[in-house]
Amino acid sequence: MANPKVFITRPIPDSVLAQIQDECDAEMWHTSAILPPIAEKIPPLDGLVTYGHEPVTDEMFDTSPNLKVVSVVGVGYDHIDVDAARERGIALGHTPGVLSDTTADMTWALLLAAARNVVPAYNHVQVDKQWHYYDPNILWGYDVHHATIGIVGMGRIGYSVAKRALGFNMKVLYNKRNRRRDWEAELGIEYAELEHLLKVSDFVTLHVPLTEETTHMISKAELELMKPTAILVNIARGPVVDHDALYEALTEGQIAGAALDVTEPEPINTDHPLLGLNNLLIAPHLGSTTIQTRMKMATMAMENLFAGLKGERLPYGVLHPGGVS
Ligand code: DGY
User: Fold this and answer.
1) What pLDDT score does 38 carry?
2) Is the pTM of this model over 0.85?
3) Distance between CA 324 and CA 317 in Å, rounded?
């Protein structure tokens, strides 16, 4: 019997690719740069590994009637038409858990960089070569320790962000659809309605999945609630924040600063007005990008792929073979 035909949308580590190629007729898009629409690439497929956020649509499924499994290298699967996959009995895997601490670390990297002007400092010294004498009156930042952090979306990543906040002696508020009283007791954190959280937090970090409900959940009205000294960190998905409203908030002093690991669209257009702001820091979607975590994610995605191709339950499944949740 012929090996299953698999397409991998971005380069994955060689050692994982080699294991997939042992069992599959696998083609990998050779570069991390622009990918042609998957549907035009090499249908029909038995398995698809998506490593990036390229949309996987119902139309694409039409071109691969034998597709058994979509394996996402990542925790978020908002780019996959889950209902269509379920209806067609296609399994869907992702890589939860393994990246929570890593993404929480990056949340803190962004938060601290924004609070303490790390990028303007780099620009001042190394790019603009302006450090001619010690000036005690430049680049004043905001204290992080003993401040209040508001965590919006308290899943595994939010939990890891909260744990780190305790080391900074911060007051931790969180908002989530379903209250986690166990985590409140364990960490000494407090549940807050979104409106209250936005009003009182010095730092607001976003960790919600992208859904209809969370699209533009931080828009003009929400930004207006925030303190003029507050900093917003979005490491969830770009469309969670309305960029026009954010531009207004950052230029009119409604909030002090922001750091985005994700944008709308992604990548953000190079002429987007947000790029010109010095109270905004944008990273190119680096949340889970460490050597160790990316290896683990690729391995988990491979395990999901193999299980799906064999018609077995996925170890990290959103949908199992037959489209079963
Ligand atoms: C995730 O895990 O969802 C990240 O956004 C990387 O794709």
Assistant:
1) 63
2) yes
3) 9
